[in-house]
Each structure stands twice: as C-alpha cells, then as structure tokens.
Amino acid sequence: MRLLLVPGVSPDRWARVWAQRVPDEPLDVVRAAPAGAAAAVLAGDVDAAVLRLPPDPAPGLSSPGPSSPDLPPPGLPSPVPSTRDGWAVVPLWEDRAVVVVPREHLFTVVDAVDLDDLRAEPLLVPADDVLGAEAAVGAAEVTQVPDTPTALDLVASGAGVVVLPHALAREHGDTRFAVRDVPEVPASRVALVWHRDAEHPLVQELVGIVRGRTAGSSRGDVAAPPAPAAPAVAGRGTSPRTPRTGTRGARPARGRGRRAR
C-alpha cells in the first residue's frame, strides 16, 4: 500500500505498527506538498493520503484580507477532498496555529499571542500557506513570499513573523526561532483520505492504525448497522415481552457533563 504524507506529519509509529500487523504487505510512505496530495490520489500514484483540510472559520472571525473565505488557502488542494465527491474523509486531529518569531522577540514573554497584537506585526505569507493566514490575521502589513523555508529565513532576519500549524513549525524549527500559540487563528485539520472508486483492500486496517486502535478492536470509519433482533423462541415459559404500564413516569436519563478545564 502506498501512503502520501504532507509536511508536518510523521509516519514512524504508523509504519512500525503496520509492519507488525500486515507483515506481508509493505507500507510505502511518500512525501508531497499539500497542494498536490489530492491529485496524486486521483491519478493513482498513491492509495491514500494524510493531508490538511481548510481550517474551520472561528466564530465571528472577519476576513479583512483579499482572500475569499470560500476559497481554500493557496497551499491546499482545490477542490478539497469531500465526501460529496466520492472521497472517504477520516478526521484525525487538529494542529493548532502558532506564530514563529525571532528568538529575542517581545512575544516570547507570553505563552499565547492575542490577535490584536499579532495584527501589528509585519506578516509573511508563503505561497504554500495552509492556514489562510492573511485572511485569518488581517495584518496591516503583509508580504507574500515563495514558500515556508523562505518565510522562516526572513523571520530569522527580523523581516516579519509567519503563522503556521504547530507541527509544521516544529519540523522546520531551529535555535533561531521561538513559537507561541495564537488561539484565535483556526487550527489546521488533518485527515486521512482516499477515493472510494479505487479503495485499497487494506485501507480500513490503515484507518485503525492511524486512529490508534488496537489490533483486536473494530475497524472502519462508518458505524455498522445494528444487528437484527433474534427471533423469539417458542417453548415453555416464553412469551413476547410487552411494555409495562403504570402511573410512574420514566426515570430521566443521567449523563455526566464535561467539566470545564
């Protein structure tokens, strides 16, 4: 099976588990830029891909930049894989947005950066941007650059800051930089996708591995239909069970609320 991964996604644990569970079928892992990931699946170059989907807009977030909110960020595939178009899309995790700044930058004195403060910084937007940073941040000064490595070199020189998914910033990180969370910028959504017209017979095994399921657990990205009820067995002491009636009301269902953190 051939699996494509975009930058910021590590295959090490998946490859180890795959080799244990499916020793007769090698997992061939290839790398590609996010913009070409969906096309590689459609062309049959790979069987599935772990790629980035457009971030969900934050509630109340305006888009002051020129980019349309209806279009994906320039570094993502267009059109984006969708179940409406015959794709299987298995959400995996969200990669939080961070701002990358020089090591001695003022932002390093805080753990998270407010959007109002970030807007005052010169923003570098790479052509392979996957967050839609220009629209999400709305900075007063924006500079377009060819790619993420170029943006990071400019950050190190003090020319501006760049907003990236945390895993991507970590992959490119070195001692020249510091990263801080930007909670108001929507996170990057990471998903496993394949096209149902060319579904590999072991793709559900892959779903279980990337989702961290044990070897004996159920697999699949859709719930199985409920099993039909067993027919009643005639015999002594058996009869169809009828609902109980009475004046006592049904006991309300109990649920455990999620404690705020």
Topology:
Blueprint lengths: L1 E4 L6 H10 L6 E4 L5 H6 L5 E6 L33 E9 L1 E6 L12 H5 L3 E4 L6 H5 L4 E4 L2 H9 L5 E4 H7 L4 E5 L6 E8 L7 H8 L51
Parallel strand pairs: 1-2, 1-3, 6-7
Antiparallel strand pairs: 3-10, 4-10, 5-8, 5-9
Q: Can you walk through the features of this model?
A:
The protein is α/β, with parallel strands linked by helices. The chain has one domain (2-210): D-Maltodextrin-Binding Protein, domain 2 (3-Layer(aba) Sandwich), CATH 3.40.190. Helices cover 19% and strands 21% of the residues. The strands form 3 sheets. A 5-stranded mixed sheet has the order 2-1-3-10-4. Helix 4 links the parallel strand 6 (123-126) and strand 7. The chain is elongated. The chain starts with a strand and ends in a 51-residue tail after the last helix.
Biggest sheet: strands, sense, closure?
5 strands, mixed
Q: State the end-to-end CA separation.
A: 41 Å
- Identify low-pLDDT runs: 60-69, 220-261
- Order of strands, main sheet, comes to 2-1-3-10-4
How much of the sequence is in beta strands?
Answer: 15-25%
CATH architecture: 3-Layer(aba) Sandwich
Mean pLDDT: 83
Helix fraction, binned, reads 10-25%
Q: State the domain count.
A: 1
The secondary-structure element order is EHEHEEEHEHEHEHEEH
Spatial extent as radius of gyration? 24 Å
Shape, per Cα inertia axes: elongated
Instruction: Please state the structural category.
Output: alpha/beta
Question: Counting H and I runs of at least 4 residues, what is the number of helices?
Answer: 7
Q: Within the CATH hierarchy, at the fold level, what is the topology?
A: D-Maltodextrin-Binding Protein, domain 2
Q: Count the strands?
A: 10
**CATH class annotation:** Alpha Beta
